[in-house]
Amino acid sequence: MEKRQELYTGKAKSVYTTDDPDLLVLHFRDDASAFDGKKKESLARKGKVNNIFNAFIMQRLEEAGIPTHFEKQLSDTESLVKKMEMIPVECVVRNIAAGGLVKRLGVEEGISLNPPTFELFLKNDEKGDPMINESLAETFGWATPEQLAEMKSLTFKVNHILKQLFAEGDMLLVDYKLEFGVFKGDVILGDEFSPDGCRLWDAHTREKLDKDRFRQGLGGVIEAYEEVARRIGIHID
Ligand code: ATP
Ligand code: TYD
User: Fold this and answer.
1) Which molecular function terms from Gene Ontology are attached (predicted)?
2) Ligand nearest to the CA of 24
3) Which of 78, 149, 220, 221 is deepest in the core (most CB within 10 A)?
4) Rounded to the nearest whole angstrom, what is the distance from the C-alpha of residue 191 to the centroid of ligand 2?
């Protein structure tokens, strides 16, 4: 497999074509961003930590029956993935109230959400990733009703698997965002799962161990990501 030209460079990762038209290389950079790219910083080791973290989670999800784009880890900061047609809709599940939900509805941070909520956001930085719903996604052609049903079902299956995995490391999976795409007609999980796209709290102290440390300027961002990794048995040099 040979890496060819850069296809796209996002806020945290760069995507490269390969000599195989079905495969791409994802390069996890050290760049951190929040608030739709308004806050930006370079954090040493971030690319490596997120690449290794994501590889571990994607493999765990595959083993548990979730179809993903993940093929293999190529180096500290690169992974090989299936080239998908991305569905421009982000799926968010919340087990505990935090972040945007607290701001939007004025509910108290930290309350349990039973049943967990499911929200859709349009992947569009210029418009600040606005919240959408199934009807808008169908009308504007962002996703079909069948794709939306599959994305919802897979997103909740992921919740079941990962809540348990993080609980074993004494952590609460507060909320997370997933992105899906289409590969040879099937809806599969894409992008990444790392502390950049979810909230994780220590189960006892409720200390934040995720990107909120960056958003809120709490410091110790990558140290927290590495702590999460250590607690679920990921070894990072
Ligand atoms: P976001 O706000 O979602 O993080 P971004 O474009 O800045 O947006 P990056 O993670 O920096 O995000 O860039 C990675 C890009 O690659 C994303 O647009 C993502 O949707 C896309 N992508 C991820 N996996 C695949 C894949 N398997 N095939 C094609 N594109 C992919
Ligand atoms: P949310 O609380 O809606 O937004 P914010 O990041 O502004 O607080 O996000 C819920 C979870 O989903 C949170 O863990 C962050 C993640 N997420 C992303 O990583 N990217 C996104 O574009 C969105 C909408 C959510």
Assistant:
1) ATP binding; phosphoribosylaminoimidazolesuccinocarboxamide synthase activity
2) 1
3) 221
4) 14
Ligand showing the shortest atom-to-Cα distance for residue 58: 1
Determine if ligand 1 sits within 6 Å of the CB of residue 196: no
Closest to 97 measured CA to CA, from 68, 78, 117, 119: 117
pTM value is 0.98
- Is the separation of the CB atoms in 143 and 132 below 8 Å? no
Where exactly are the structural domains of the chain?
3-82, 85-220
Which residues neighbour 147 within 8 Å (Cβ) at sequence distance 6 or greater?
A: 87, 180, 182, 187
Among 74, 126, 182, 191, residue to substitute to test ligand 1 (most atoms within 8 Å of Cβ): 191
Cα torsion through 69, 73, 79, 84, rounded to 10: -10
Q: What is the pLDDT of residues 167-198, one digit of tens each?
A: 999 999 999 999 999 999 999 999 999 999 99
User: Is any atom of ligand 1 closer than 6 Å to the C-beta of 13?
Assistant: yes
211 CA from centroid of ligand 2 (Å): 10
CB-CB contact of 231 with 169 (8 Å):
yes
Angle at 234 between CA 233 and CA 237, to 5 degrees: 130
Q: Which two tokens stand for residue 3?
A: 């890496």
Thinking of the domain 85-220, which architecture would CATH place it in? 2-Layer Sandwich (3.30)
What digits encode the pLDDT tens for the residues 84-121? 999 999 999 999 999 999 999 999 999 999 999 999 99
Task: Tell me the CATH number for domain 3-82.
Answer: 3.30.200.20
